[in-house]
C-alpha cells in the first residue's frame, strides 16, 4: 500500500464561496470521508484555518525564533488535505477526482516509502 | 536476422515482460541489456525464438543480480520473482505486457513530452541520442525527461496495467497521441531528412500491436488505418531524381504501396461498420478517399472535413479543410474560409494561402506569402519546395 497526500489549495484574493457553496462543500467532503473509511483508504483528513493564523518556528544554532504568518511567501496556500492509502496512483487519482469536484484543484503527492511505517 | 534487428524488434517486448516480472522499469532495462550483452558473446546464429531466449536469460541475470544486492527495491523485486515462479515458465515476451507498459509510459500524470520519449526508449528500444535527434532537443534534456518520468512512475506508484473499460476514454487518447506524433515526426521531420523511416516504422509497429490487443476500439483501428494509408504514399512523396517534395495531386500513383492501401481501406470499412466516428477514423477515411481510384473525390473529402471540423474545431483542421474547399468551390471561397484562422509560426498556413493567391492570379501577394512560409519552414526539403514555387511564379508572371 502506498500513502498519498491529497492537498486542497486556496488562492488569496479568489472570491469567497457563499454559505450555500460552503454547505455543499462540507456535505460532499463528509461523504468522501465516509466512503474512504468504508473502502479502508482513509488515514487522516482535515481543513485548515487561514494562513494568517500560522506561526513559523526556526531552530538555528541553538536559538529558537518565531515569526508570524505562513512560511511560503506565495498567494497559494494549503486549505485542507487528506492522507489516504491505496494500491497505486490510479486509485489515488480516482479519489482525488471526487475531492477536486468538491473542493477545487487537488495536488496528489506520494509519501516517500522510507517514511511510511 | 542480425542482432541489431533482433534488438529493435524484441527490446521493447522483453522490457515490458521483465517490468511485470520485476515490478521495476530500471531493473527490467538492466536485465534485458545484460541479456543482449550475453547474446552478443554467445550466439553464433540466433536461436529460433530470440525473444524467449532474451526473456529467460534476462530473468536469470536479474535473479543473480538481486541475490547479490540487498536494497529495498531488490528485495521487493525478488519477492515478486518468487511469486511468479508458480506460473508456468514464460515461453517468451507476453503481448499484454507491452500494452500494460505503453499505458504506463503514456499515463496522463506524466508530462506529455516525457510520454513520447519514454515510449520510444522503452517500447521502441531507441537510444537517447536517437530520440534527441528525432525531436531536435538536447540529449541531456531527453535523458533527464526519461529519468524523471521513470522516477515518478516508481515514486508515485503509477501501475502497470491496462485501464478498465470505463477509464479508456481518458487513458486511450494520450496513447494514440504519442503514436500519432511519433509517426508525424518521422513523416515530416522538424529538421534533417524529410522522412525518417525508423520513427514511422516504429509508430506503425506499435499501432499494429495496439490494434491487435484492442480490436474493439474503433479509434485504435482508425489511427492504424491513417498511419498505413499515409505510409503507403511515402514512396511517391519525394521526386526520385531531385529529392524534391511532390504534392499529392502530382504523385505517381503507381509508386504507392498497394498492400498497405488494401489493409488501410479494410480497416476504414471496419470502422464504418462500427459507426462510432472519431478524429482518427475520419482522417483515415479522408486518406482512404485520396487513395481510392485514379483521382481524389474532393466533394467526399470536403464532407469528411466538415465532419472532422465539427468534432475537432482546431485551426489545423480548418486549414486542411480549406484545401478541400479550394478543390470543390474554388480558391476564392477557400481563401475566405481561411480568414480568421490563426496558426502562429506554422509555415503551412502562409504556404496554403500562397497557393490559393497564385491560383487567383494575385501573384504579388502570393510571393509575399511564399516568402513568409519559407521563412517559417524548419525542414530544408519543404523550404526548398516553397522557394521553388515562388521562383516558378515569378517566371510565369514574366512570361505572361
TrEMBL record, chain A:
<dbReference type="Pfam" id="PF03795">
    <property type="entry name" value="YCII"/>
</dbReference>
<protein>
    <recommendedName>
        <fullName>YCII-related domain-containing protein</fullName>
    </recommendedName>
</protein>
<comment type="similarity">
    <text>Belongs to the YciI family.</text>
</comment>
<dbReference type="InterPro" id="IPR011008">
    <property type="entry name" value="Dimeric_a/b-barrel"/>
</dbReference>
<dbReference type="InterPro" id="IPR005545">
    <property type="entry name" value="YCII"/>
</dbReference>
<feature type="domain" description="YCII-related">
    <location>
        <begin position="20"/>
        <end position="109"/>
    </location>
</feature>
TrEMBL record, chain B:
<feature type="domain" description="DUF6596">
    <location>
        <begin position="171"/>
        <end position="271"/>
    </location>
</feature>
<keyword id="KW-0804">Transcription</keyword>
<comment type="similarity">
    <text>Belongs to the sigma-70 factor family. ECF subfamily.</text>
</comment>
<keyword id="KW-0731">Sigma factor</keyword>
<dbReference type="InterPro" id="IPR007627">
    <property type="entry name" value="RNA_pol_sigma70_r2"/>
</dbReference>
<feature type="domain" description="RNA polymerase sigma-70 region 2">
    <location>
        <begin position="7"/>
        <end position="70"/>
    </location>
</feature>
<dbReference type="Pfam" id="PF20239">
    <property type="entry name" value="DUF6596"/>
</dbReference>
<dbReference type="InterPro" id="IPR014284">
    <property type="entry name" value="RNA_pol_sigma-70_dom"/>
</dbReference>
<dbReference type="InterPro" id="IPR036388">
    <property type="entry name" value="WH-like_DNA-bd_sf"/>
</dbReference>
<dbReference type="InterPro" id="IPR013249">
    <property type="entry name" value="RNA_pol_sigma70_r4_t2"/>
</dbReference>
<dbReference type="InterPro" id="IPR011990">
    <property type="entry name" value="TPR-like_helical_dom_sf"/>
</dbReference>
<dbReference type="Pfam" id="PF08281">
    <property type="entry name" value="Sigma70_r4_2"/>
</dbReference>
<feature type="domain" description="RNA polymerase sigma factor 70 region 4 type 2">
    <location>
        <begin position="102"/>
        <end position="153"/>
    </location>
</feature>
<dbReference type="InterPro" id="IPR013324">
    <property type="entry name" value="RNA_pol_sigma_r3/r4-like"/>
</dbReference>
<dbReference type="InterPro" id="IPR013325">
    <property type="entry name" value="RNA_pol_sigma_r2"/>
</dbReference>
<dbReference type="InterPro" id="IPR046531">
    <property type="entry name" value="DUF6596"/>
</dbReference>
<dbReference type="Pfam" id="PF04542">
    <property type="entry name" value="Sigma70_r2"/>
</dbReference>
<protein>
    <submittedName>
        <fullName>Sigma-70 family RNA polymerase sigma factor</fullName>
    </submittedName>
</protein>
<keyword id="KW-0805">Transcription regulation</keyword>
Amino acid at each position: 500500500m502506498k500513502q498519498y497526500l491529497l492537498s486542497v489549495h486556496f488562492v488569496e484574493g479568489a472570491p469567497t464561496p457563499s454559505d450555500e457553496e460552503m454547505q455543499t462543500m462540507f456535505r460532499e467532503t463528509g461523504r468522501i470521508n465516509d466512503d474512504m473509511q468504508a473502502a479502508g483508504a482513509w488515514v487522516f483528513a482535515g481543513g485548515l484555518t487561514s494562513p494568517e493564523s500560522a506561526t513559523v518556528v526556526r531552530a538555528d544554532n541553538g536559538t529558537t525564533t518565531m515569526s508570524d504568518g505562513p512560511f511560503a511567501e506565495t498567494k497559494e496556500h494549503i486549505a485542507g488535505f487528506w492522507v489516504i492509502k491505496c494500491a497505486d496512483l490510479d486509485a489515488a487519482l480516482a479519489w482525488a477526482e471526487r475531492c477536486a469536484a468538491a473542493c477545487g484543484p487537488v495536488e496528489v503527492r506520494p509519501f516517500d516509502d522510507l517514511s511510511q511505517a | 536476422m542480425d542482432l541489431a534487428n533482433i534488438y529493435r524488434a524484441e527490446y521493447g517486448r522483453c522490457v515490458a515482460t521483465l517490468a511485470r516480472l520485476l515490478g521495476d522499469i530500471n531493473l527490467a532495462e538492466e536485465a534485458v541489456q545484460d541479456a543482449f550483452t550475453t547474446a552478443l558473446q554467445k550466439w553464433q546464429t540466433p536461436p529460433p525464438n530470440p525473444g524467449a531466449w532474451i526473456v529467460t536469460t534476462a530473468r536469470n541475470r536479474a535473479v543473480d543480480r538481486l541475490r547479490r544486492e540487498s536494497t529495498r527495491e531488490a528485495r521487493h523485486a525478488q519477492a515478486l520473482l518468487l511469486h511468479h515462479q508458480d506460473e508456468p515458465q514464460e515461453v517468451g515476451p507476453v503481448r499484454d505486457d507491452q500494452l500494460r507498459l505503453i499505458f504506463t509510459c503514456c499515463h496522463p500524470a506524466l508530462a506529455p513530452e516525457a510520454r513520447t520519449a519514454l515510449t520510444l526508449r522503452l517500447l521502441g528500444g531507441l537510444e537517447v541520442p536517437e530520440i534527441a535527434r528525432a525531436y531536435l532537443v538536447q540529449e541531456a534534456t531527453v535523458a533527464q525527461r526519461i529519468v524523471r518520468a521513470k522516477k515518478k512512475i516508481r515514486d508515485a506508484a503509477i501501475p502497470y496495467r491496462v485501464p478498465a473499460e470505463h477509464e479508456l476514454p481518458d487513458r486511450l487518447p494520450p496513447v494514440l497521441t504519442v503514436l500519432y506524433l511519433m509517426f508525424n515526426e518521422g513523416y515530416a521531420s522538424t529538421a534533417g531528412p524529410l522522412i525518417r523511416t525508423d520513427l514511422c516504422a516504429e509508430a506503425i509497429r506499435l499501432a499494429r500491436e495496439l490494434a491487435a490487443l484492442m480490436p474493439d476500439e474503433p479509434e485504435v483501428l482508425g489511427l492504424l488505418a491513417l498511419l498505413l494509408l499515409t505510409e503507403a504514399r511515402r514512396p511517391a512523396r519525394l521526386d526520385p531524381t531531385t529529392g524534391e517534395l511532390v504534392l499529392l495531386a502530382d504523385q505517381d500513383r503507381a509508386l504507392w504501396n498497394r498492400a498497405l492501401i488494401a489493409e488501410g481501406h479494410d480497416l476504414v470499412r471496419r470502422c464504418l461498420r462500427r459507426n462510432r466516428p472519431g478524429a482518427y477514423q475520419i482522417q483515415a477515411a479522408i486518406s482512404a478517399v485520396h487513395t481510392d481510384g485514379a483521382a481524389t473525390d474532393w466533394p467526399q473529402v470536403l464532407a469528411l472535413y466538415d465532419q472532422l471540423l465539427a468534432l475537432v474545431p482546431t485551426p489545423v483542421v480548418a486549414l486542411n479543410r480549406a484545401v478541400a474547399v479550394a478543390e470543390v468551390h474554388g480558391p476564392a471561397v477557400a481563401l475566405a474560409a481561411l480568414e480568421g484562422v490563426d496558426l502562429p509560426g506554422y509555415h503551412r498556413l502562409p504556404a496554403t494561402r500562397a497557393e490559393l493567391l497564385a491560383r487567383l492570379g494575385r501573384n504579388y501577394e502570393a510571393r509575399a506569402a511564399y516568402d513568409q512560409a519559407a521563412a517559417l519552414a524548419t525542414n530544408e526539403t519543404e523550404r526548398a519546395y516553397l522557394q521553388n514555387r515562388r521562383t516558378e511564379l515569378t517566371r510565369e508572371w514574366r512570361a505572361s
